[in-house]
Every structure is written in C-alpha cells, then in structure tokens.
Amino acid sequence: MITLLDYGAGNVRSVINAIEKLGETVRVAASDRDIVNAEKLVFPGVGSFGSMMTILHEKRFVEPLLTFLDSGRPFLGICVGMQALFEGSEESPEVKGLGVLPGRVRRFTVDLSVPHIGWNGIRVQQPTHLFDGLDGDEKLYFVHSYHAVADDPATVLTLTDYGYPFVSAVQKGNILGTQFHPEKSGATGLKLLENFIREERRISIPEKCPEQTRLAKRIIACLDVRANDRGDLVVTKGDQYDVREAGNVRNLGKPVELAGRYFEEGADEVTFLNITGFRDFPLADMPMIQVLKETSKNVFVPLTIGGGIRDFTDKNGRSYTALEVADEYFRSGADKISIGSDAVLIVEEYLKSGKKSGKSAIEQISFVYGNQAVVISIDPRRVYVQSPDVTSHLTVETAIPGPAGERYCWFQCTIKGGREGRDVDAVTLARSCEELGAGEILLNCIDRDGTNQGFDIELINAVKKAVTIPVIASSGAGCEAHFAEVFRNTDAESALAAGIFHRREVPIAAVKNYLKDKVEVRL
Ligand code: 1PR
C-alpha cells in the first residue's frame, strides 16, 4: 500500500495510474494520521513552491510530514515535492520549506529556454537502489524553472546538465526526491517507481551514465479530436484546417487507441486538441474527459489537452471559469493544458489596456499549476504585404513570395479553428502570452497544416526569437528530413506532427532513427 500526499493542486492522477500499473494499491492521504501511519509515502508537487507550502500549512500536514520523514520509512518527493525538502526557494522567498535537507531552490540562470522541459539524462553520484535494472543512459522527463542547490553533497543522488549541472535527485537514508517525473518517463520511470516500491533491489551505480547529459529534442504526436457527423468522437486531420472530405469529417481512428499506439512507438509527448471546443463547452463534452482518463491509465508520457479552455456560462446560466475547466482536465490526467482562441482575445485586451488584469485564463491557470502547465496554441496564417510600412504588424522578409510577388508577410492569429482572423500577429501574441505567464508555445501554421511540405521555418524563427519559453514547431511534416530541417534551421525545442503518424506514412521510430546522429533524441 502506497500513500499519496495530495494537497489538491494538480495532476496526481498520473502518479496514481503509474503506481497502480505496477500492481500496487494507492491510498490518498486525507488526514494527518494517514500521513504519520503511511508505510511508504509519495509526494508529487506541482505549482509554485509558495502555494504548495501554504496549502500544506493550511491543511496542517507539515508536522505529520516531518514526523513521517523522521521515521526512516520510504519517502519519494517528486518535482516541487522534492524541492519542499529544502530550506526554502527563490520562487517564494517568504515561505519556509521543510528544511530536511540543507540548501535552497533557485531559478535557472541559463542562456537557454526556461522552463527546462523535456527528456534529459542523469549522472548518478552515489550507490542507490533507485536505478536498479537501468543502464544509466536513459532519459527522464523534466519540467521546471527552479532547481535545488544542495549544501550537503552527500545528499545529491543525481546531477543533470542544463547550461550547468543541477541536482536532479536527492537521497538521505530512505528519503528520496526526484526533480524529474518518473510517472511521465515511460518504461524507465515505471522501473524507477517499482524500485522505490519493492523491497528486493540491488544497491549500485548504473554503469552507462553519460559524462554530460543532454536535453533531447521532443517528437510529439498530435490528435485533433472532434465528434463526426454520427456523433462519435474521432481523431481527424485537416488540410489547412479543413477536416472534411466529400462533406464528411475524416475519421483516422479512435483517440485512446491512437494515443496508446504513439506511446508504444516512442512519442515523447501526446497532445489532444478538441478542435470544436470553441463552440462545444468541454465540461458538457464528457467523452473528451473520458478519453483523457482512459489514455492516462496506459500512457506514461506527458499529455497536453486543448480546446475550449475559457470562461463559459452554460444554458442553465451556470458560469464556469477557465480555471475550473482546466482543473477538470488536470484531474483527469492532463499534464498541460493548451489555450488557443481565448489566448488571442486575452492578448487583445492586454495590448489595449497595457496592463495585466490577473484574471485571464493564462494568469490564473499558471498561478495555480505553474507556467509549465500552460501551453499557448497559435493558429497563424500568412498575410502578404508589399512592404513592412503598410502594416503595424511585425513582418518578415520571406523567401516564399506571395501571389502578387509580395516579399513580406506577417503571421495573422486566428480563432475558432482558423475561421476568424484577428488583428494580432503571432510574434506579438507569443511574446505577450509569455509575459502573462505561459510556459510553452505550440506553433501551428494553417498554410502548412496537412500539406506535407515541411514546417514554416520563417514563422518558427520569428516566434522563437521573440520568446524565452520553449516552442513546439507544428504543421507540415511530410518526411523524416523535415524534422532534421526544423531542428537545424530553428531553435525549436520540439516538433509535432499528425497526418504522417496517423496514416502510418512515417513511424515515430523512423523519425528518431533519422535524427539520432544529427540532434539529441530519446531512443
Ligand atoms: O481555440 O482554445 O478552443 O482550441 C482549439 C484547438 O484546436 C487549437 O489548439 C487549434 O489549433 C485546434 N484546431 C482547431 N481547428 C482545427 C482544425 O484543424 N480544423 N487543429 C484545429 C489544429 C493543427 C495541429 C495539427 C498540425 C500538424 N490542428 O494540431 O496537428 O498542424 O498537422 P500535420 O502534421 O498533419 O501537418 P481553442
């Protein structure tokens, strides 16, 4: 029996699913006695350090937690749950940590995108049972902007490199903590959780740890989901966002099945986009929540879900905030949510007023769940102009001239699945969303979507150069070489594709094999 400490602010479902997958029973601690009496305690932390510690205090969980940590029984803190073990964090300087390990948590100061998102390696520093059965060269999934700085080197279990080495796991007796997410790290993560749970394990240092670890470029499979004309929820795929063929919605498979297939085939993440979410309220659209719940039982890589995340009043007059919609998605197994149409409207308001309201979906969701949990999905389309002076928008000089030979274009944001163009360009949108607290940009491109012509390199460079958060390049992948091209010619951290994976034209493994001598990938 594993006890899970849930302080009510995030996705504990993936951790429960991963432990249950290993045949264990999970009990969620509901009281201080559950914590004190736990045999083995897992503490997954999300959101900000300050809000986590404040909630722990409010629930009177701090004392029982310290009692448990003193008992010598096995403890595993994950992400912010590991950071809690330290004395405090730069993220919330006014709040004290548990202080079980000497040291503090600091923000990354690197000339690289922050948050540090994706699959990176580990360098094991001391013998441990946690990596029994692993080689040491595996990659694990990270997503964080802060990392621990341990004052006692004896507590450092692993180091990972991102600009500089940082503490990625700690160990003191039976107290373990990982900055990475074992529950999102595929088979490697499940093995690690098994090593935490089971008694019979070998204590060793794995043999193949790299001298320096490297963050992998991520390959993401995207499932555009909507109801077809018969009312079944299907994975569909458009050409330049038109998902109909001979009048019918294209049906490329069932969402849960396809997501499972992509996990098996080595996708680094899976994204679901509820493409009619702008008109159908997602909480009324329970099948989508069901899809997420079912998928997260068997898919142990990060899941993003988008579509319809906005404030909404239903036909009975009941109002829901975007945060409530996101809550439901996180509770059902999402690790990140993605906001499309509403982000454009939020930015329009932000640009008009010149100040943050604190009330937008981006601000509210990132405050509770952390910036890394908020992805902005942009659906831009090229607007050609003869010269940069004729528009107030940020233009690029393009190597792909317009229909009248125009040599400049700007990238117009759209809402409602490309149906409505707005007076905001993608570069301004991305930059504004970062200011408002978004943690990642999913950069689609209507011109390239479904064309198999390759990613829009000019668009990706324009946006990537304007932000410091990671960018996912999307739309247009037609072959393995297109992925190499996007990683060679832009600084995008990941690349997403849909059609070629759904139609089995190019398997994910083929993409990774092609890339492996060119860029770092997770094999
Ligand atoms: O606006 O917050 O409700 O979110 C709706 C979401 O649904 C947005 O993220 C928007 O991008 C997406 N969406 C809306 N309509 C469509 C459509 O296709 N008709 N799909 C749509 C967006 C783009 C990618 C696609 C890549 C790769 N699809 O998701 O997977 O272009 O495709 P490819 O590799 O086949 O070229 P809201």
From TrEMBL:
One GO term of the biological process aspect: L-histidine biosynthetic process
Pfam families with a match to the protein in the record: GATase, His_biosynth
Catalytic activity: L-glutamine + H2O = L-glutamate + NH4(+); 5-[(5-phospho-1-deoxy-D-ribulos-1-ylimino)methylamino]-1-(5-phospho-beta-D-ribosyl)imidazole-4-carboxamide + L-glutamine = D-erythro-1-(imidazol-4-yl)glycerol 3-phosphate + 5-amino-1-(5-phospho-beta-D-ribosyl)imidazole-4-carboxamide + L-glutamate + H(+)
Enzyme nomenclature, EC number: 4.3.2.10, 3.5.1.2
NCBIfam families membership: hisF, IMP_synth_hisH
Gene Ontology cellular-component terms listed: cytoplasm
Keyword flag Transferase: no
CDD domains found in the cross-reference section: GATase1_IGP_Synthase, HisF
Keywords, comma-separated and alphabetical: Amino-acid biosynthesis, Cytoplasm, Glutamine amidotransferase, Histidine biosynthesis, Hydrolase, Lyase, Multifunctional enzyme
Pathway: Amino-acid biosynthesis; L-histidine biosynthesis; L-histidine from 5-phospho-alpha-D-ribose 1-diphosphate: step 5/9
Gene3D superfamilies: 3.40.50.880, Aldolase class I
Domain Glutamine amidotransferase, first and last residues per copy: 4-197
Chief localisation class: cytoplasm
Protein role: IGPS catalyzes the conversion of PRFAR and glutamine to IGP, AICAR and glutamate. The HisH subunit catalyzes the hydrolysis of glutamine to glutamate and ammonia as part of the synthesis of IGP and AICAR. The resulting ammonia molecule is channeled to the active site of HisF. IGPS catalyzes the conversion of PRFAR and glutamine to IGP, AICAR and glutamate. The HisF subunit catalyzes the cyclization activity that produces IGP and AICAR from PRFAR using the ammonia provided by the HisH subunit.
Subcellular location: Cytoplasm
Assembly behavior: Heterodimer of HisH and HisF.
GO molecular function: glutaminase activity; imidazoleglycerol-phosphate synthase activity; lyase activity
InterPro entries tied to this protein: Aldolase_TIM, Class_I_gatase-like, GATASE, His_biosynth, HisF, IGPS_HisA/HisF, IGPS_HisHF, Imidazole-glycPsynth_HisH
Protein family membership: Belongs to the HisA/HisF family.
Protein name: Imidazole glycerol phosphate synthase subunit HisH
Residue positions of the active site: C79, H181, E183
